[in-house]
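Milestone 3.1: sequence recovery, worked example.
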């Protein structure tokens, strides 16, 4: 077994990275080796408790959680669902019965669940399937107005506005946009509409043309045609029209077909107006020849008057100038060859008043470029181009419907509401595809590669941001999955019981990991079917370890992110209730030893003056309560709708015993809550909220401000009840109120 274990370690660590992140291919060999290693470790060979096993554990952990970067794009080794599940099982077997391995794994897992660890060619570099444009919508304006994301915008209008803004940003972008797009053409049908646009119109009779040279009315022919084509053609299918009878905007759902390959040769000036084209061409050639002649004469003059530098002769300089001119890029390809391939379709589904946009886009980065994808908000998946007609052409569709009168199935026709709204074609003329020799790791092959588009490199700052976003996203993706949750359940609940000398120190370690995972990760998952089981596990661990209870409260008293995130900001009431009960349970577990410390201040010496602000600093319970009370002045007002459990917790704590009530009175809890209710502290503190927190709040639920009317929000009922309880607890033996001056003024004068 020992020899087999070492041989398996060597085979697993030396195996190449075969699994890919997208369109994952499972490495059956790796999965088999990992499963075999798990079975070998069940027999507890000496290797399991060796230093080599600890090193192997670190490697397996990296096979699961290593994050890619520009230099190591292939990590982690385990990407498929089966290989990751097998690796999780292997980690569990490695730590069972091995305290050293457990401590090592505990340290690594705990670092993954620290506060702040959870949370585009950009999108080619990004690991996300989709990019959230919220930050873009915040800063983008149309007609000098911010975008209203709840209102449907016309896609063609937005596209034209965006392209126009790009042109105005920099000269380089202006040149790029002009090269790629030139403009947008509104169309009602493709080939037929192109024929209609370029049809010859004779001007005669009352509509005769006034000659610009002789000033007389003459018979003439008018025709529109394309003089020059861009690299990318964009067509708007004009699916909206205005009904002059009903005076409303309507969507046109009629059938509209378009080809996968478009030939624009028949609509060019060269073919429609050959004589005019030839005359313009001769004029342009003559103009260019004159400009070149003048440029050469000017350059000769400069060379004669300039001193030679570095021994370069005048003839050498002239040849260098000529070479520079010859190296200028050729831009007339689209003018000579007029075939275009369809590369994208934007579809609108719905009516003229509302609906939804999504796109079909061809991946041109792959050889051949014939793979299509559907981009529908956050959903990105492969698409069969043979279905373009069914998905994009619009028109009518027929279905069978049962007619109870005739007892027959009848054909029922109705218009599709989904149809192409914008089309994108890319030039594919002569030379668009060339054969080059492409180097691969193990072989070389001749593959067709399309000529690259005009280059537009990412800035270093944007590239770094994308990779930082990749790491956050992949870290979340690795831990927000059912197999990882099951793995954590075993590590936190089952594995500690298998360790020799299982005691309070192991229980404390397990409780720390369980709590960090539960608060930082589990409660943020969309599905939480095992929440009750996790709370029961935490309760059991806290019951077994007083040190774990003290760590829990002390951690929250020092770092307020957990109570703020759960008790104040969390929109899920069930999560807030569970956390409230857990905190109350921990305090009850510690109360018998900590209650005498509630009202004890910190003194430097027996005769030193007592500072009232240090009351409660000797107990982790009261430090936690003071931190919670401070939240009333620091941002809690913006989340009033979620504060029911926050005040319910303080209420339950205040009713727990006499010591708790007297402590709340001593630290001014009454005046703090009354001032919060009256809103006197609203302008004294400006909360700084990060963009991530702001986006999270917007996604979860809208925040509300403290109401100014006399109505009482439901979330404040417990707060008012707590104030009443504390006022009663302040009465002395003579039944007179013993409130602090600030509390008395808040209650009586407020």
């Amino acid at each position: 077994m020992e020899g087999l274990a070492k041989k398996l370690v060597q085979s697993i660590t030396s195996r190449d990275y075969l699994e890919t992140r997208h369109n994952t291919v499972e490495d059956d060999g790796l999965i088999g080796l990992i499963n075999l290693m798990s079975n070998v470790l069940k027999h507890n060979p000496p290797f399991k408790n060796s230093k080599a096993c600890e090193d192997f554990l670190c490697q397996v952990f990296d096979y699961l959680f290593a994050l890619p970067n520009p230099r190591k794009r292939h990590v982690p080794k385990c990407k498929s669902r089966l290989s990751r599940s097998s690796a999780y099982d292997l980690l569990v077997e490695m730590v069972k019965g091995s305290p050293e391995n457990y401590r090592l794994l505990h340290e690594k897992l705990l670092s993954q669940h620290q506060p702040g660890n959870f949370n585009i060619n950009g999108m080619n570099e990004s690991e996300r399937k989709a990019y959230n444009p919220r930050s873009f919508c915040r800063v983008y304006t149309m007609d000098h107005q911010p975008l209203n994301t709840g209102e449907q915008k016309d896609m063609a209008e937005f596209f034209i506005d965006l392209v126009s803004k790009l042109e105005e940003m920099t000269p380089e972008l202006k040149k790029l946009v002009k090269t790629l797009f030139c403009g947008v053409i509104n169309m009602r049908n493709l080939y037929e509409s192109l024929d209609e646009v370029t049809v010859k119109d004779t001007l005669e009779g009352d509509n005769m043309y006034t000659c610009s040279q002789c000033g007389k009315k003459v018979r003439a022919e008018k025709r529109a045609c394309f003089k020059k084509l861009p690299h990318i053609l964009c067509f708007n299918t004009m699916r909206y029209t205005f009904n002059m009878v009903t005076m409303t905007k309507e969507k046109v759902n009629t059938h509209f077909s378009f080809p996968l390959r478009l030939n624009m040769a028949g609509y060019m000036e060269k073919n429609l107006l050959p004589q005019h084209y030839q005359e313009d061409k001769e004029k342009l050639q003559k103009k260019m020849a004159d400009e070149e002649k003048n440029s050469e004469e000017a350059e000769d003059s400069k060379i004669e008057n300039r001193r030679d530098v570095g021994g370069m002769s005048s003839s050498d300089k002239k040849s260098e100038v000529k070479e520079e001119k010859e190296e200028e890029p050729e831009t007339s390809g689209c003018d000579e060859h007029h075939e275009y391939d369809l590369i994208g379709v934007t579809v609108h589904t719905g009516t003229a008043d509302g609906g939804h946009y999504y796109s079909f886009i061809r991946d041109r980065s792959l050889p051949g470029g014939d793979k299509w994808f559907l981009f529908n908000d956050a959903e990105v998946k492969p698409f069969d181009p043979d279905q373009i007609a069914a998905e994009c052409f619009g028109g009518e569709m027929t279905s069978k419907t049962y007619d109870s009168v005739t007892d027959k199935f009848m054909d029922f026709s109705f218009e599709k509401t989904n149809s192409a709204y914008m089309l994108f074609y890319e030039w594919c003329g002569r030379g668009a595809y060339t054969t080059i020799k492409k180097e691969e790791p193990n072989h070389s092959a001749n593959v067709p590669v399309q000529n690259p588009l005009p280059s537009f490199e990412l800035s270093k700052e944007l590239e770094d941001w994308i990779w930082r976003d990749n790491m956050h996203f992949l870290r979340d993706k690795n831990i927000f999955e059912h197999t990882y949750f099951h793995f954590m359940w075993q590590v936190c609940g089952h594995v500690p019981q298998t360790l020799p000398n299982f005691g309070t120190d192991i229980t404390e370690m397990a409780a720390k990991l369980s709590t960090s995972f539960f608060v930082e990760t589990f409660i943020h998952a969309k599905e939480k079917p095992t929440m009750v089981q996790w709370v029961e596990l935490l309760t059991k661990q806290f019951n077994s370890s007083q040190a774990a209870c003290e760590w829990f409260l002390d951690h929250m008293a020092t770092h307020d992110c957990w109570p703020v995130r759960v008790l104040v900001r969390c929109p899920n009431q069930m999560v807030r209730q569970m956390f409230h009960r857990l905190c109350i349970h921990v305090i009850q577990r510690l109360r018998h030893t900590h209650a005498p410390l509630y009202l004890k201040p910190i003194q430097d010496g027996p005769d030193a003056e007592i500072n009232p602000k240090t009351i409660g600093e000797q107990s982790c319970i009261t430090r936690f309560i003071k931190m919670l009370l401070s939240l009333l002045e620091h941002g809690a007002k913006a989340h009033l709708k979620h504060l029911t459990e926050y005040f319910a917790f303080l209420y339950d704590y205040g009713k727990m015993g006499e010591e708790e009530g007297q402590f709340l009175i001593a630290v001014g809890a009454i005046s703090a809550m009354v001032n919060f209710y009256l809103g006197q502290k609203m302008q004294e503190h400006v909360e700084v909220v990060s963009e991530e927190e702001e986006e999270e709040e917007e996604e979860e639920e809208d925040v509300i401000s403290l109401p100014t009317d006399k109505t009482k929000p439901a979330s404040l009922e417990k707060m008012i009840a707590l104030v009443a309880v504390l006022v009663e607890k302040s009465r002395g033996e003579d039944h007179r109120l013993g409130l602090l001056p600030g509390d008395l003024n808040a209650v009586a004068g407020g």
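The CA atoms of residues 394 and 507 lie 64 Å apart. The first strand starts at residue 141 and ends at 142.
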